[in-house]
Design goal:
Length: 100
């Protein structure tokens, strides 16, 4: 696996590899996981950084953050009043609440 080959994979496959590599105990796997994180951040910086900024960014939570509609990640309703919209190209939400 190379850095260039990761760029051609669908996001779902990147996340599958992320989950598999989390169980591998090998010193070199950290390089692959670094490549995966770089590629996921490039594809969805809002979701990736929301995951990274969690108090303890668990491996299993990365998929949820990457697949969540970015509009939902800064909404105050997420997790309380709303489970979030499916990842679709929404431009607005009547339930969205923010600090702004």
């Amino acid at each position: 696996m190379t850095l260039e080959s990761l760029k051609t994979l669908p996001t779902g496959q990147l996340l599958d590899i992320w989950e598999i590599t989390g169980k591998i105990k090998d010193l070199e796997i950290s390089t692959v996981r670094g490549w995966l994180m770089d590629e996921m951040e490039r594809r969805n910086p809002v979701g990736f950084n929301a995951w990274l900024n969690r108090e303890t960014p668990a491996d299993e939570a990365l998929r949820w953050h990457m697949e969540m509609n970015p509009l939902c990640l800064s909404c105050l309703c997420l997790g309380d009043d709303c489970g979030g919209m499916d990842p679709e190209p929404w431009t607005g939400c009547i339930y969205r609440k923010t600090n702004k």
